[in-house]
């Protein structure tokens, strides 16, 4: 009986070999469907990025291709120009005004919509609608709205209110506080403020959508506990709700920063480079240098600098998101 019992134990039962996983049609069809997109992505995105970086290290600065190695000479030449130094000032000023304006207006609109107002979906659509308009169309519209002529656009209203000297908006040559630094004046070009207003009008709806999703994700239990403790409306918002929107703010800042670094159509249609490059952007500089000046290597250098700037903002954020998702999966 003992022998029979030993033979019947699970350890004595022979294990059957596991069947090999066969190549299924589902996997093959998925690869076949994704293959063209992956090939196109590899060629037209990453391939062109590496090709652009290679061109920036050559002497191709004329109609005749010249692939001889130049090292970092094109980058040094670009940084020494008055135009690119102005671009650095402008992109810093524009990005700061653009992000602060979008976050402030977006948060304000999100808080208003979160009050369970009537026709909420209608107002959401109205605020997000400018995002559906192209930047070129936005530039044309706001070039008329902020027309520097006294009998057009906003200046017509200001003149009716008694302002005899309305602002010149995007044609203003003033830079405040106009501190000398190298070849340029450091400050806020007033002409660039007009461009930032148009950009905030178009993208504040995106910030509103991000903040509205964050507000709807705040647990009601936390709000109710704060109200029971005697927190008023302002105290409730700034001490309880606003800290919960930190991830929404980071997401909006990263995406809006990338959008500001690659802005082109809005500035091109609205102002162009402006007087003394007061509204110029690296993207406009790259376009003119490459396609109008035929300095392909220097244009590629500007494009590479923009790519590195966007990667510096985007890559750390993507890494943090992936790590957070991995931690959530492990838990």
Summarize the structure.
This protein has about 325 residues and is mainly alpha-helical. The chain is built from 14 helices and two strands; from the N terminus they run αααααααββααααααα.
Please tag this protein with its features:
331 residues; mainly alpha; two-stranded antiparallel sheet; 14 helices; 4% strand
Give a structural overview:
With 331 residues, the chain is mainly alpha-helical. 66% of the residues lie in helices and 4% in strands. The protein has 14 helices and two strands. A hairpin with a 2-residue loop joins strand 1 and strand 2. Helix 2 runs antiparallel to helix 14 and helix 11 packs antiparallel against helix 14. The longest helix has 35 residues.
What is the number of beta strands?
A: 2
Q: Which structural category do the helix and sheet elements fall into?
A: mainly alpha
Q: What Rg is obtained from the alpha carbons, in whole angstroms?
A: 28 Å
Instruction: Provide the β-strand percentage band.
Output: under 5%
Shape: globular
Tell me the strand order in the biggest sheet: 1-2
Distance between the termini: 48 Å
Into which percent range does the helicity of residues fall? 55-70%
Q: Provide the low-confidence segments as ranges.
A: none
Give the biggest sheet. Answer: 2 strands, antiparallel
What is the string of helix and strand elements? HHHHHHHEEHHHHHHH
Overall mean pLDDT stands at 86
């Amino acid at each position: 009986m003992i022998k029979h019992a030993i033979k019947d134990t699970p350890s004595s039962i022979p294990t059957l070999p596991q069947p090999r996983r066969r190549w299924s049609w589902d996997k093959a069809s998925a690869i076949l469907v994704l293959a063209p997109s992956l090939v196109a992505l590899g060629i037209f995105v990453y391939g062109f990025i590496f090709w652009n970086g290679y061109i920036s290290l050559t002497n191709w600065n004329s109609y005749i291709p010249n692939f001889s190695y130049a090292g970092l000479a094109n980058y040094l030449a670009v940084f020494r120009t008055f135009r690119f130094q102005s671009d650095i000032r402008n992109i810093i000023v524009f990005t700061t005004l653009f992000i602060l304006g979008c976050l402030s207006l977006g948060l304000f609109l999100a808080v208003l919509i979160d009050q369970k107002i009537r026709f909420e979906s209608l107002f959401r659509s109205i605020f997000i609608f400018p995002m559906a308009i192209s930047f070129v169309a936005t530039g044309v519209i706001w070039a008329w709205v902020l027309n520097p002529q006294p009998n057009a656009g906003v200046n017509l209203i200001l003149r009716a209110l008694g302002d005899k000297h309305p602002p010149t908006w995007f044609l203003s040559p003033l830079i405040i506080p106009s501190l000398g630094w190298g070849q340029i004046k450091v400050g806020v070009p007033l002409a660039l403020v007009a461009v930032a207003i148009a950009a905030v009008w178009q993208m504040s709806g995106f910030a509103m959508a991000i903040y509205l999703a964050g507000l709807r994700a705040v647990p009601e239990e936390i709000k109710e506990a704060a109200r029971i403790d005697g927190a008023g409306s302002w105290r409730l918002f700034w001490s309880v709700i606003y800290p919960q929107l930190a991830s929404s703010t980071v997401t909006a800042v990263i995406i809006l920063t990338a959008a500001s670094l690659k802005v082109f159509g809005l500035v091109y249609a609205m102002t162009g480079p402006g007087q003394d490059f007061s509204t110029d952007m690296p993207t406009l500089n790259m376009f003119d240098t490459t396609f109008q000046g035929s300095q392909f290597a220097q244009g590629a250098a500007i494009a590479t600098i923009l790519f590195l700037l966007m990667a510096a903002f985007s890559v750390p954020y993507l890494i943090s998101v992936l790590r957070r998702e991995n931690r959530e999966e492990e838990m």
